[in-house]
Amino acid sequence: xxxxxxxxxxxxxxxxxxxxxxxxxxxxxxxxxxxxxxxxxxxxxxxxxxxxxxxxxxxxxxxxxxxxxxxxxxxxxxxxxxxxxxxxxxxxxxxxxxxxxxxxxxxxxxxxxxxxxxxxxxxxxxxxxxxxxxxxxxxxxxxxxxxxxxxxxxxxxxxxxxxxxxxxxxxxxxxxxxxxxxxxxxxxxxxxxxxxxxxxxxxxxxxxxxxxxxxxxxxxxxxxxxxxxxxxxxxxxxxxxxxxxxxxxxxxxxxxxxxxxxxxxxxxxxxxxxxxxxxxxxxxxxxxxxxxxxxxxxxxxxxxxxxxxxxxxxxxxxxxxxxxxxxxxxxxxxxxxxxxxxxxxxxxxxxxxxxxxxxxxxxxxxxxxxxxxxxxxxxxxxxxxx
Amino acid sequence: xxxxxxxxxxxxxxxxxxxxxxxxxxxxxxxxxxxxxxxxxxxxxxxxxxxxxxxxxxxxxxxxxxxxxxxxxxxxxxxxxxxxxxxxxxxxxxx
Lengths: 386, 95
Ligand code: SF4
Description:
The complex is a heterodimer of chains A (about 375) and B (about 100).
Chain A: H1 10-23, E1 30-36, H2 37-45, E2 56-63, H3 71-81, E3 86-90, H4 104-109, E4 114-116, H5 120-129, E5 134-141, H6 146-159, E6 164-170, H7 173-182, E7 190-193, H8 195-201, H9 207-213, E8 217-219, H10 224-240, E9 245-247, H11 259-268, E10 269-271, E11 274-277, E12 281-284, E13 288-290, H12 299-302, H13 318-322, H14 354-361, H15 366-370
Parallel strand pairs in A: 1-2, 1-7, 3-4, 3-5, 5-6, 7-8, 8-9
Antiparallel strand pairs in A: 10-13, 11-12
Chain B: E1 5-12, E2 19-24, E3 27-32, E4 47-51, E5 54-59, H1 61-73, H2 76-87
Antiparallel strand pairs in B: 1-2, 1-4, 2-3, 4-5
The complex binds iron/sulfur cluster.
């Protein structure tokens, strides 16, 4: 059997770092975007940037589903929750996400029946047990959670449960990456592909990034060594002049993805013509809605929602952070007005948001000094194994 | 929510092929395994990666241990995920 240490070993990390450094061309700078919030978390927590050569920068991407939910959708969800005889259910991450009229927590304090659940199946169970109320599940997430919502709808249909629906906010990762690639603000040299999203969609959908945009992408796991290894693979591709999709995380991610999960999503959901992303604006075909065949389970059709677009607070720079244009600490309200306890923007709400991850772990990272915004850096040792 | 947690299969349901009993850090709960395919050939003792009550992929034991360790290292975020999992109303009754 292999051991955990295999993913953490300090010597291996140092050896990898040396090999990465050897691949850097003198005078050239590299920027790789980690799309997934889980990667952001690992990078800050283990101080990985401090193990990379100065010329390599890791840029955070839009891969935290809570972070990209626009204010208007939160308001819509609150409006549904405020209807008589409705029980709104949501993941814990969702509770503090600010909308234009406050968060779920605020609405709950004001009397709405909003309950935290671990799984959409919990929401379905509440519906089963409370036939005189209508239970709505606030569905959020990328392709990792969409199959679970879809399976739950199928189950509700099979059991003939009529007092259950989902408010569908599922988003898809590929159009978001496309939007980033089309954005003129950012120059990238490659991507660390999301680990768990890829267990569902596989590696094929990324091929356009390599072929059409000339950027390498390496699907990566969540261990510190996974990320260093993926950076090494990206650098090797750059050095050898290749642009390909590679799978560093093949021990979990099959190249083809999860066929069954994709089928289930396709059965229940279809692409929306467009959807608003916080910070990224409207992106076409970037989110999912419930198909006509399951209209009875679509909260958007059962309830009239305001559907009003709400601009983000002026102080909030989440958009820039989500696009990787700004580092979290460069936002003017970071750590002062905006903290995990009193989030102004969404990136501070979820533990996978770049701002929250940086707030919790990253404050001693070298990258801050690099940006010239702080004094001496007390570097904790041995960082990879922290 | 995005955290996948590894669980060990303890028992497969006989009446509902979508269900199985797993143990996550000693907590036993029912999860839905309907997203895995026949190719995964699930058996008792296997490890799966669980997202919001659904097994999304079969993983090997080393990967499971590493993922568990990493989750522990996350501190509050993991505690929350585990608390949510434990508090899940779905699977309390066993199979
Ligand atoms: S510090 Fe707060 S407001 Fe600023 S980008 Fe981060 S989450 Fe948004």
